[in-house]
Amino acid sequence: MTPNITQHTMPQPAACTAAAATHRGRATASRIALHRATCRTARDYLALVGDLLDSPEVTALHDYRHHRTTRHQHVLNVSWYSFLLARLTHMDAAAAARAGLLHDLYYYNFCDWQSTKRHHIYHHPQQALDNASRLTDVSPIEADVILNHMWPMSPDRPHYKETYLISCIDKYCCLLELSAGFLSALGRRCRALLHRPVFHKGGQA
Ligand SMILES: [Fe+2]
Question: CATH no. for residue 78?
Answer without folding.
Answer: 1.10.3210.10
